[in-house]
From TrEMBL:
<dbReference type="Pfam" id="PF02826">
    <property type="entry name" value="2-Hacid_dh_C"/>
</dbReference>
<dbReference type="GO" id="GO:0030267">
    <property type="term" value="F:glyoxylate reductase (NADPH) activity"/>
</dbReference>
<dbReference type="GO" id="GO:0016618">
    <property type="term" value="F:hydroxypyruvate reductase [NAD(P)H] activity"/>
</dbReference>
<comment type="similarity">
    <text>Belongs to the D-isomer specific 2-hydroxyacid dehydrogenase family.</text>
</comment>
<feature type="domain" description="D-isomer specific 2-hydroxyacid dehydrogenase NAD-binding">
    <location>
        <begin position="129"/>
        <end position="307"/>
    </location>
</feature>
<dbReference type="InterPro" id="IPR050223">
    <property type="entry name" value="D-isomer_2-hydroxyacid_DH"/>
</dbReference>
<dbReference type="Pfam" id="PF00389">
    <property type="entry name" value="2-Hacid_dh"/>
</dbReference>
<dbReference type="InterPro" id="IPR006139">
    <property type="entry name" value="D-isomer_2_OHA_DH_cat_dom"/>
</dbReference>
<dbReference type="GO" id="GO:0005829">
    <property type="term" value="C:cytosol"/>
</dbReference>
<dbReference type="InterPro" id="IPR006140">
    <property type="entry name" value="D-isomer_DH_NAD-bd"/>
</dbReference>
<dbReference type="InterPro" id="IPR036291">
    <property type="entry name" value="NAD(P)-bd_dom_sf"/>
</dbReference>
<keyword id="KW-0560">Oxidoreductase</keyword>
<dbReference type="GO" id="GO:0051287">
    <property type="term" value="F:NAD binding"/>
</dbReference>
<protein>
    <recommendedName>
        <fullName>Glyoxylate reductase</fullName>
    </recommendedName>
</protein>
<dbReference type="InterPro" id="IPR029752">
    <property type="entry name" value="D-isomer_DH_CS1"/>
</dbReference>
<dbReference type="InterPro" id="IPR029753">
    <property type="entry name" value="D-isomer_DH_CS"/>
</dbReference>
<feature type="domain" description="D-isomer specific 2-hydroxyacid dehydrogenase catalytic">
    <location>
        <begin position="66"/>
        <end position="336"/>
    </location>
</feature>
């Protein structure tokens, strides 16, 4: 089905930093009208919505930051969107879409798309930085140097770190990002790379990595655990007191997925006791106000969710959001349907 003959109205949540040219092409080539919200919070957005301001909207495009304007795209908001707009598509700018209740969207006949593949390289690069920094205590060494500790202690008094060589890397979630992490770690002469997915990958995708049928098996073997699973009801607080107890003493944990995959109070205890030697993370459960008890620990390497914070990646992601809209206009189906809805539309 093509919708090319119909003028489409898109409710765009920004910011749009780099893809204005793609949006201009969409508007001029496909008779698209773009409208935007002036709301500052969910209450104001719901008021706008119920006023009829967006009655003609067929498609919503959103960013991770737009949650400040609308709140989570949960069952309540989806019901309101369905009632007060003509929404058929929600195009999300990001690989992770845990802010969106995709199942409820599907029940209301709304297609949900995300950005796949384009985030893999930048996120994996960030992951490797965190991994090496956590092994070698690099962040603490920078702090110690800035605090003037170098003249009185070797390396500013920073604890001796570890080399990656000879270690076993366990990747939780070997999707595109997990495989990019695997490939980037190959030159470091690891003992082996193991992974756990819900299902074993094909030999082509698996490469040299070894499949662990259970998370427990991975936890027991890995010296370094790389978290690359999506956040959902099955993965929330996957890393907790019980699973940490299954890990090796002195394990290193790296997270570039979502903060809520880790039970942070349990991790704090493990970091203080030494059960977990160090933790590197770009993501936190309560962003942008994470628990300072965690990120201020000396054996934590912390970043403020900047895994895709590069000009090239952000531009490509913004343009892909537009491509999802174009593909819907031309075919009646978004380009990158989220997995939960692939067999529904």
């Amino acid at each position: 089905m093509s919708t090319a003959s119909k003028s489409l109205t898109v409710l765009r949540f920004g910011p749009t930093r780099f893809a204005q040219s793609a949006w201009n092409d969409l508007i001029s080539n496909y008779h698209v009208k773009v409208v935007e919200s002036e709301a500052h919070n969910r209450e104001e957005f719901l008021k706008e919505l119920r006023s009829g301001k967006f009655a003609d909207v067929d498609c919503v495009t959103r960013t991770f930051e737009s949650v400040k304007k609308t709140g989570l795209v949960d069952k309540e908001l989806i019901s309101e969107l369905k009632k007060y707009t003509q929404i058929k598509v929600l195009s999300h700018n990001g690989a992770g879409y845990d802010q969106v209740d995709a199942v409820s969207c599907g029940e209301q006949g709304i297609q949900v798309s995300n950005v796949i593949g384009l985030v893999d390289a930048a996120t994996a690069d960030t992951h490797i930085y965190l991994l090496l920094s956590a092994l070698r205590n690099f962040q603490l060494s920078t702090i110690n140097m800035r605090d003037g500790k170098w003249p009185t202690a070797k390396c500013g008094g920073t604890p001796i770190g570890h080399d990656p060589e000879g270690k076993t890397l366990g990747i939780l979630g070997m999707g595109g990002i997990g495989r990019a992490i695997r490939d980037r770690m190959k030159p470091f002469d690891l003992n082996k790379i193991i992974y756990h997915n819900r299902h074993q990958l094909s030999s082509e995708l698996e490469g040299d990595a070894e499949f662990c049928p259970t998370k427990k098996e991975l936890f027991e073997q890995a010296d370094i655990i790389s978290i690359s699973v999506p956040l959902n009801g099955h993965t929330q607080h996957m890393i907790n007191k019980d699973t940490i107890s299954q890990m090796k003493d002195g394990v290193v944990i790296i997270n570039t997925a979502r903060g809520a995959i880790v039970n942070e109070p349990d991790l704090i205890d493990a970091l203080k006791s030494g059960k977990v030697a160090s933790f590197g993370s770009d993501v936190w459960e309560n962003e942008p106000n994470p628990d300072s008890q965690l990120y201020m620990l000396p054996n934590v390497v912390a970043l403020p969710h900047m895994g895709t914070h590069t000009f090239e990646t952000m531009k490509a992601m913004e343009e892909y959001v537009v491509k999802n809209v174009v593909h819907y206009i031309e075919t009646g189906r978004v380009l990158a349907m989220v997995p939960e809805l692939k067999h529904k539309f």
